């Protein structure tokens, strides 16, 4: 089977309609506004295969898992191997790429912040552009021989720091709004056939999207959820087949969706996900305004990947999915049936916490264990403590390094800050309760491998020490 992908919003007809892997990576969003999903779900691995993977390194695990999900016709095993090695080699500050650390007796932290930007998105973004570039010429040869190459990369950002970025054929466009506005606008542009047609005819250009709407973003993320389980297996924290829970701070639901796909591959996962939709069966955005919090990466009202989840949970009911998400676009709300809600809750539990809970959690975890977590991981931790029944190990997904959100973390730790800047190395010494001090050493160790290192030094200095220190 070569064509295996379908849109969440329309039926593949008898004459086809199913898509190639390469198509879905290059297109990003389906023309009908839906998201691409594997029509037959994910391939399952045998227990013996998982046990063999448990002995392997992260890149080796990634290779085996991705080989199962990408037909060799689209990317040959040899090409995939070199992509994986490029993605997960030198670029990560931890040799294990996504290490699992034990936090308490039954809680573990999956650290996804050892890549170049110290956020979990690196796990996908070190690989996805390679896959994208690979799929592009292949499609050109087969279907669009007149189509020269990817021309324009316009990036819509709601973050100020990215607006200065201008290199080669990349332009960033800043908008005075939030993530939801950007995502909505992108979807609208994709759905405008006169715009896409004009771009294709006049400029021989197609639009694509690199956020977690894109299948190429989601797929590499499945690997680290599998890898976390394999690590627990290796250290004897679970025996194969015994379940684990994962707790994920959710924004666009991409990370959580990848965990659900890992489950389809045979990893025995139960989920807890942050979102009040899950607990009420209603997604009601009426009258809700996005409030920027200390955990900004999860400040999102409309989570795109919920659409993939609803598709799979409803057994591929495209009319239902189209109806729900059209209603969300037009009426700003939807509700699902009691029956479907029950099925959703078999996979997912949801919770939330206040900003105060988040800060308290950071402080508590540090005083009890010496571990510092960022403001997103702390949301997951607060919810996990409240909801976890402790009948199996729980993996907290740590999506960012605490140094990225230093200001809030310092506030949580109730630190008095002192600092010294010996030669090129910045030390921030914090005394907590006048007893302990923390060095940002490991953060800077991460940063040494960090292409954005310079930016981070500035960010952390600005956040800790104020503008004067940065400019002096
Ligand atoms: C992007 C991001 C998230 C949200 O991930 P989704 O896949 O959109 O749910 C959570 N935490 C951090 C630090 C992020 O950067």
UniProtKB/TrEMBL annotation:
Q: Which InterPro entries match?
A: Ser/Thr_deHydtase_PyrdxlP-BS, Thr_synth_N, Thr_synth_N_sf, TrpB-like_PALP_sf
Identify which cofactors the protein needs according to its UniProt entry.
pyridoxal 5'-phosphate
Q: Which domain of life is it from?
A: Eukaryota
Q: Which UniProt keywords apply?
A: Pyridoxal phosphate
Instruction: Tell me the GO molecular function terms.
Output: pyridoxal phosphate binding
Domain Threonine synthase N-terminal: start-end pairs: 5-88
Q: What are the annotated GO cellular component locations? A: cytoplasm
Question: Which GO BP terms apply?
Answer: amino acid metabolic process
Question: PROSITE patterns attached here?
Answer: DEHYDRATASE_SER_THR
Q: What is this protein called?
A: Threonine synthase like 1
- Native organism: Pygocentrus nattereri (Red-bellied piranha)
